[in-house]
Design goal:
Order of helices and strands: EHEEHHHEEHEEHHE
Mean pLDDT: 88
Number of helices: 7
Number of strands: 8
Largest sheet: 8 strands, antiparallel, barrel
Structural class: alpha+beta
Low-confidence stretches: 1-21
Oligomer: single chain
Radius of gyration: 19 Å
Distance between the termini: 34 Å
Length: 263
């Protein structure tokens, strides 16, 4: 299966655990990074440098948060090795990115100890350390309830879905979500959610949605992957699930681990 950077577009994760008021929309910008093996340490240094800038954006209300995830498997021939997720409270803020004229302000406040020349060197290092393979604009649609705060080391598995019927989101929310909520309540996973891709879209796109599950241990993830952690379904739920599967086409499954986080 092709890795995500080789595809026209792709989705990912990092949703249900974000602290956001109930019924308040959450928008997510995913940026997939292709990093050569010899640049890996440089790339991680660059992202650590950028965490201070993202902290300034959070303090200013420009973003809700930012995350860095390492994909698994993550070899250089796999495609994307990392992706970042930037969280916004509105579509307008996500489309705008950095507010007009604010970037230099955030940069100076984040690293007041650095000269203009040193800041320029960090910008240059940012450019050469990775290739932003693609960006994806998304919106959270639904998620399970719980108090999981997504600490560093959180494991993620996500399924890329192509909607085949207009009832797909309703099926995920009314049939699949209650089952996943039970798994969360039983400690078999930490969170589950559904997101919709806003851009890019169209008949040639890989997927229109993604469902994700988060885990606090490799045992939780392994049990889910081998089928031992799914738990039994009632007969009526099983029948509804069977019908619900016809509303979408699963295009792929990927995994990642959280390695940096700003809130």
């Amino acid at each position: 299966m092709k890795k995500i950077t080789t595809l026209t577009f792709v989705l990912l994760l990092s949703l249900g655990a974000f602290v956001q008021a109930q019924n308040e929309p959450l928008y997510l910008l995913f940026e997939f990074m292709k990093v050569n093996d010899e640049r890996n340490s440089d790339y991680l240094e660059v992202e650590q440098f950028w965490t201070n800038i993202h902290q300034q954006r959070v303090a200013d209300g420009n973003i809700i948060g930012w995350d860095l995830w390492a994909m698994s498997p993550g070899g250089s021939e796999q495609g994307s090795q990392y992706f970042t997720v930037t969280l916004f409270s509105s579509l307008e803020a996500m489309l705008e990115g950095f507010p007009n004229g604010k970037f230099n302000e955030y940069l100076q406040k984040a690293h007041p100890e650095l000269s203009d020349k040193e800041l320029g060197e960090w910008m240059e290092k940012t450019v050469i350390s990775r290739d932003i393979a693609h960006q994806v604009y998304c919106k959270e649609i639904n998620s399970t309830e719980g108090d999981f705060d997504m600490p560093i080391g959180t494991l993620l598995k996500f399924d890329l879905m192509k909607q085949l019927d207009d009832s797909y989101e309703k099926v995920e929310s009314e049939v699949f979500k209650p089952w996943h909520q039970q798994l969360v309540d039983n400690g078999q996973k930490e969170a589950w959610g559904l997101i919709r891709v806003l851009l890019p879209t169209g008949s040639q796109s890989l997927a229109s949605h993604m469902t994700y599950s988060m885990y606090s241990s490799y045992k939780q993830l392994a049990d889910d992957m081998d089928g031992s952690g799914g738990g039994p379904m009632e007969l009526m739920t099983g029948l509804a699930v069977k019908q619900g599967l016809a509303t979408r086409d699963m295009r792929g499954v990927e995994a990642a681990q959280l390695i940096m986080k700003v809130r």
